Structure formats: structure tokens, C-alpha cells
């Protein structure tokens, strides 16, 4: 789904374009350049269809591109100003549409949009040959905070500085740790990840630094630790705030002089390892409570990066959904390309306590259960779709979850079909095509919800 702006005075053009593109994006309108720029600055658009006369006014296309370098343009023109439209295409517009605009011409331009956007995005980031191609999807964001984070990663990745990733569970700290490693000078060496919170205190030192044979009961053979395994590369210490006091002392030694010893051994090993640590807890508070060493905290806190929770970067939600669906199509091969509009609306009003990981897991379960070509509310947790049923009276005593879910689905279908029938003036074939169902299926839904197509047809003057 795209955020689309239509910049035009012409009411008929606006109506036709909004109807033609209703199934591929969220569409808004502006009638002058200043209003359009203000709307774009507040929430950047992916695609702008603009009257060439309005767009040509100062400052035009460059002002929009300065806010979002990946915004795409289609210009609207008459035959008399076709030359201006051609110049706009040379300057970067995807194409132009002649007035009066025809719906078929709009659909002829659509296939070039994604190709052009992908190409522009890749060229921009590969121009300086820093970001690796396989990571381009990960570093794409509309959120100002995330853009700053990627700028910071770009600065720190080539160095050997210790990085501390801060953020709630599920915000993607592990992914960012790998992003740093793969854009460092150590990318050809190992990346070793260890979840410190999943290892008992009695074993954490052995896991990190290894042990000699006979060092403790059960140590029947010599075992190298994760720091030895990561030689020359990067070690990622997730949930660093959970490690035991004795492990904190040994980790401090690694950070101070770059050496460590195995448990039960006298040999001193050199640690040629870059450390990236992560935590979802407040290490400063742990220091004040004397749970975490102050000197270790200062050593780890060389380059802190705080990752915002998903609820603070909702402008990326739609893109993340598309990205996860793309991955699920590769994994399961069902070719589900999008989610139902009401699903996204429900997602936008959900708090996402589990952040990006929760979104990915919920989508994977829904994808597996889905039998249509679109992810529908039926297979999603009811709490993620509460916005859909906010106007429905709460179920009475004895109502089951299945009954509550039916309420939500019915409300979603009524809202969606009503909106679509208004756009098509009650035309069954056109409505069915836009909804991605057959006319027979549509008629069954209309009967079930007691919707009459006649009430959506234009009223004739009497």
C-alpha cells in the first residue's frame, strides 16, 4: 500500500484518480502547492500525481524530494503543456497523463512505479558503495528516528568501537547488530551471538570464556568459549544486564586490556573481538542499585544506540507488513501479496507490546491459516483488530471469543463493502473486481449484511 497525494484543482480528475487507485493506497488531495508541501512534510507521500501547472510553481519537485528522496511523480497535463510534462519526466517523473485522464492510462503507468522506486533506492545507496544490496530492505524507513539510527550505524560500523543497543524486546536489536557487523571491516570473520539471559549464572562464564578439563564438576574436556570462536570478528551479547557479577569482572578485563583466561586455566588469550551488547533494561538504574558494575557500564556505553518501539514508528508499519509478506511468500510459497485494509487499520491502533517480533509472528500465523489471497481479520488475534469493533456494543455475558470475532469480521465487511459501493455507485461487477471476489460472492455478502446496491446508485433529479 502506498501513501498517495493528488495535487489538482479539477474535481473530476480527483474523483477518477481516487477511484482508480483506491485499492493500492491511501489517497489524499491538495488544491495548491503550499498545502501539498505542508501535508508531505508532516507525513511523506510515496506517490504524487500533480497538475503540471501547479507543480511548476516554485519550488516544485525538488522541494518534495528533499523531504522524501524516494517520492515518485506522475504529472497531469493538457496537450498544450505536453512539453512541460516531458521536461518533468526528464527531471525524474515516472510519466505523465493527458487530460481528460482515462483510468486505463493510469493502470498502464502503474507497473513502472515499483521498478522505478526500487531502482532509485538502490542507486542512491549503492552510489557510495557502503550499504550492501542485501540489506537495503532493512535500512528503509520513513521514521526520522530510525533514519538517524542508520546514519549512526553508518558512522560506527567501520570502526572497532563497542556499541550498546538499547530498546524494548522485539525492536530488532539482533538485526541491527548483524547490520553493524556486515558493514564493518570484520564482515568476513565470524559473527557470534549469545543470549546471556538464556544461560544460567553458573554456566555463563564457561560459555563466554571457555574452560579447561577438570575446571569444575562435569568439565570432562577442554572447551573454547564464544570469545575464542569469534576471533577476528564480532560477538553480540544480548541481554547483557543479566550476566553474573563474576562474568562482569571478566568481561571488564576484555574491554580494558583485551585479554581473558579460560575457567581453571592460567593461559592468557588475546581477544581480537569487536563487542556489540544489547539490553531491554535500564543499565543506569541497575548501576545505582549495584546490580551492574559502573565501570563495565561506562566501557559498554561508548556508542549507545536507542531503538524506538514500533508504536513510535507507525509510519513504517505498512512497509514492514509488506516486507514480512514478501519473506513469507519465499518461505511458504502461497503468494499472498497484501492484507485487508481493515487489518492495517486495526494494526495502526494496536500498542504492539512485542514490537516488530510480535508483528512478524502474528503475520506468519495468519499467513499459514489464510485460504484467500489477502490476509483477513479472521486469522488474527482479536486484540490487534479492536479498532474495527470500537463502535460495536461489548458482547454480553456468556459471549465466546469466536462470537466476538464474528462481530469484528461482520463490522469490517460492512464498512469495507459500503465504502467500495459508494465509490462504484453500486455497480456489482466493478465492486467485485476491486474487492478481489466474484459477483456471486459479492451478492451473497450483500444479502448476508442486508445491503442494497440500489441505495448507492446516483439519485436522479425529479
Structure description:
- The protein is α/β, with parallel strands linked by helices and 462 residues long.
- It has helices spanning 11-20, 33-42, 52-55, 61-67, 82-90, 103-126, 144-156, 173-182, 201-209, 226-229, 245-257, 283-288, 294-300, 317-332, 341-348, 355-369, 401-424, 428-435, 439-448, and strands spanning 2-7, 25-30, 47-51, 72-77, 95-98, 163-166, 191-195, 234-238, 259-260, 269-270, 274-279, 303-306, 338-339, 374-375.
- The strands form four sheets. Strands 2-1-3-4-5 form a five-stranded parallel beta sheet, sandwiched between helices. A five-stranded parallel beta sheet has the order 7-8-11-6-12.
- The longest helix is centred in the N-terminal third of the chain and has 24 residues, at 103-126.
- The two termini are 41 Å apart.
- The mean pLDDT is 85.
Q: For the terminal residues, how far apart are their CA atoms?
A: 41 Å
Question: Low-confidence segments, ≥5 residues, pLDDT <50?
Answer: none
Which percent range fits the helix content? 40-55%
- Give the tally of β-strands: 14
Query: What is the helix tally?
Result: 19
**How much is the radius of gyration in Å?**
28 Å
The average pLDDT is 85
Task: Note the main sheet.
Answer: 5 strands, parallel
Secondary structure class reads: alpha/beta
Q: What is the approximate shape?
A: elongated
Q: Widest sheet: strand order?
A: 2-1-3-4-5
> Approximately what portion of the residues adopt beta-strand conformation?
5-15%
